[in-house]
Every structure is written in structure tokens, then in C-alpha cells.
Amino acid sequence: MKLATYRDGSRDGQLVVVSRDGTLAHYASGIADTLQQALDDWNFIAPQLRDLALTLDQGKARHAFPFDPRLCAAPLPRAVAWLAPEDGADEPRPWCSDALWGPARPLPAVDGVADVGPSLAVVCGDVSPGVDPAAALEAVRLLALACHWRHGDAPAEPTQPWGVTLAPCVVTPDEVGPAWRDGRLAACVTTTWNGRKLGIADGADQAVPFGALIAHAARIRGLSAGTVVAGGTLPTPQEPGNPPTWPRGYANLAMRRAAERLTLGRASTPWLAPGDRVHIDARLPDGRAPFGPIDVEWASAQSDGVAPGWSRS
């Protein structure tokens, strides 16, 4: 099952069910108005959403309409919490930003430099304190594709958490089939910067599986439905040698600059700057792109900060 949230001028948007091929959508009105509402009563509401998804996929939904990712907010615009590990740690911590942005929303028109952080994430139901990693995976309701942005004042390295952009759709684990295994999603995540490929990561290489991340986050107080746990910036492998190589590119600009210092003696790649554009997509081994793409531009200070298809509401 594939879900998204359309902007409607409210804080939480309007929940829509999306066809498996990503071409059609149908409002979930009458079942759940928002994704948070669905998560709060998942066992009752999810089967109804699945029935609507099946009807939509069969071409029998009477009020279906073409799905437009540009009209999407973040699938869960006001997540209960957003947790992510730092530098491969096994304990996710609160991401120090409450900005959750839709897939086409431009980055704010401010000065400075920034870096990307492509990541996979899970949306949880209620999780009891002290749960073990295997049981923690039973609380995973949805899978998501995200990008963590870090900002800083030029020319210093951007280290300050800035916001999170999410791909238009979230999907239930059964939607991705065997690609979801043992708390990791085997998806090829490609990051493109100004039309040039920055790196290709595999979710199967995620440092810590989601079961362990959720268990760590829930060990004392538990988690409430609507909490998002991200896996952290996805790694790209380094091949040993003299000098070493990165055949699949780099997870982010910080890694690319570090590689340049190691191999060339200095970093020559600039940081992300206003006017730059980033595209991130995730594909399963069978070629499907279940989440849809993240495709955002960093608005320049001379613009009004509004991308085509976007309104400030």
C-alpha cells in the first residue's frame, strides 16, 4: 500500500491513497483525513485503506485522479518525533529541527552552504519500552525516503541540522516484498547534484538495522505512533588501495571532500549553495521506485522561495 499527503492549506494536509504504479490517487476521506489519524488507529483503518488501494489498482475507483507529486507535503508533516543516529551510532537521537518538507519544496532562501544526507526511514506505531529488536520491527508501519540537510555559514563546514525533505510517498513493508529483510531495505539510492551523480548507496548497507534503532529509541519510554526513525546517511563503500577509491561515489559532499583531501591533498568540491538542485531517488532490485523522487532547488535570496507547483500554505 502506498500513501501520500496532499497540501490543502492545513497543517496536516489530506491523506491520499496512491496506486502501485504511482499514476493515480484517491482521497482517503471517510476512512482517515490525515496519516496521523490512520497511525493512531492502524489496526482498524489500515484494512480499509488497503481495500481502497486494491480498488484503485484495479481501475475501479470512481473518484480517482492523476497523482501529482508536486502537490505533496511531507507524508507526515508533523511527525510526533524524528530520530536519527549520528555517524553510525546505534542510538538514534532527536533531529534538532522540526522542519519536514515535501518533495518539491525549495530549500529556504538564506545565505550559507549546505550538505545532503540521503536516508531511509520507518514510521512506527506504538512501541513498548524495553522491546527487543525483533519485536521492534513489528511496529514498523511505513517505509520512507528522506534527505537530512545540514546548513552552515560559508566557508565553514555545514554541521547544523536544517530540515528534512521527504519523498512524496510512504509504503507499507509488504509493498516492497523481499527487498525488506531483517530490518534493512535493499534499495539503490541515487543522489544527483546539479545534474551530476554524487553517489549511489544501497540500503542493504545501512550501518544499523531498523530493529536495533527502534529498540534503542524505545528502551526507556517507548515510542508513540507517528514517530519516525531514520537510518542515518546511507554509506557508499570504499575500495582499499593506494590511494583508495569510491566506485559508487559519495554519500554526501563531506565524504567527497574528505576523499579529495586524502587523495589530492585538498578539497576542491564546493558545498551546496543557493541555486543548486538535488535529486534523490530509490529503486528496488526489480526496478520499481516506490517512494517517488525528491527533487528540490535551494532558492536563491533573489527569488521568492516558491517552486513551481508550490504555494506557501
Automatic annotation (TrEMBL):
SUPFAM superfamilies: FAH (SSF56529). Residues 1-78 form the Fumarylacetoacetase N-terminal domain. Pfam families: FAA_hydro_N_2, FAA_hydrolase. Residues 102-282 form the Fumarylacetoacetase-like C-terminal domain. GO terms for molecular function: catalytic activity. This is Fumarylacetoacetate (FAA) hydrolase family protein. It comes from Tepidimonas fonticaldi.
